[in-house]
Amino acid sequence: MNTLLTLGDNLKTFWDYTGMANASSGHIIMILVGLIFIYLAIAKEY
Question: Which sign does the torsion angle of CA 35, 39, 45, 46 carry?
């Protein structure tokens, strides 16, 4: 049980150090727009 608590604490610490912990809806929308453009560039050769 102690191992699961330690793992959970470590995952929370990792999440807090990433940029996604502070991402707003605008950030998520811009990431999705970027992914769409990457898809178009690769799949449709634009």
Answer: negative
pLDDT bracket for residue 22 (50, 70, 90): confident
User: What tokens does 5 get?
Assistant: 């608590």
Q: How do the domains of the chain map onto residue ranges? A: 2-43
3-state secondary structure of 45: coil
Q: What share of the chain is helix, strand, coil (3-state, %, to 5)?
A: 85, 0, 15
Express each pLDDT in 30-40 by its tens digit: 999 999 999 99
